[in-house]
């Protein structure tokens, strides 16, 4: 099955050798998107590379404009524009914000997602449960309205605690501003130094 829109989630950038670059996991997600698009040609989807910097998960300061996750993923996908319409969202600092900023930037406008026209989620298998949960919260999409496009390669991560925190901390919330406020509160609590 193919998707009319692929949402590619960033996994960080780093400064190495005097330049900004994608982490291996972010690069793997670009490759997964490219492979999916080419495997389903001549279908021409919209591909949204979503990511600013991983401030929420790592506390990292923002890279300069033009060197955020979405920017670097877009550059790494050079040549793919012959087969897909490429866009970058570069303001998000978390997986939740990937969805919220993509909506704010109107990058999903005009699409009706469902079983016959799912939204493609490009990320690693370990990240997909939380991404699917947040797609349900933010977009109201579940089940066959979402198409998993798993990436392989890059650093591994155990996302189970983040999924549990999201399920608990976002319980009952639906509006973007409330979701974001709750996420910020959870992050502040998790970063608070422990005493004793």
UniProtKB/TrEMBL annotation:
InterPro entries: DUF218
Domain DUF218: residue ranges: 4-140
Top-level taxon: Bacteria
Pfam families in the record: DUF218
Stated name of the protein: DUF218 domain-containing protein
């Amino acid at each position: 099955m193919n998707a009319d829109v692929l949402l590619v989630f960033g996994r960080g950038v780093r400064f190495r050798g005097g330049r900004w670059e994608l982490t291996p996991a972010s690069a793997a997600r670009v490759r997964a998107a490219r492979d999916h698009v080419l495997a389903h040609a001549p279908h021409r989807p919209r591909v949204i590379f979503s990511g600013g910097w991983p401030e929420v998960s790592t506390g990292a300061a923002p890279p300069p404009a033009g060197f955020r996750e979405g920017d670097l993923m877009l550059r790494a996908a050079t040549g793919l524009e012959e087969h897909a319409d490429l866009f970058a969202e570069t303001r998000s600092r978390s997986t939740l914000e990937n969805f919220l900023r993509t909506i704010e930037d109107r990058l999903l406008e005009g699409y009706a997602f469902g079983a016959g026209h799912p939204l493609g989620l490009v990320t690693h298998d370990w990240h997909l449960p939380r991404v699917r949960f947040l797609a349900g919260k933010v977009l109201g999409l579940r089940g066959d309205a979402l198409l998993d496009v798993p990436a392989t390669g890059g650093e591994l991560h155990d996302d189970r605690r983040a999924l549990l925190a999201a399920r608990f901390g976002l319980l009952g919330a639906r509006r973007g501003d409330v979701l974001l406020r709750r996420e910020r509160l959870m992050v502040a609590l998790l970063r608070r130094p422990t005493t004793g």
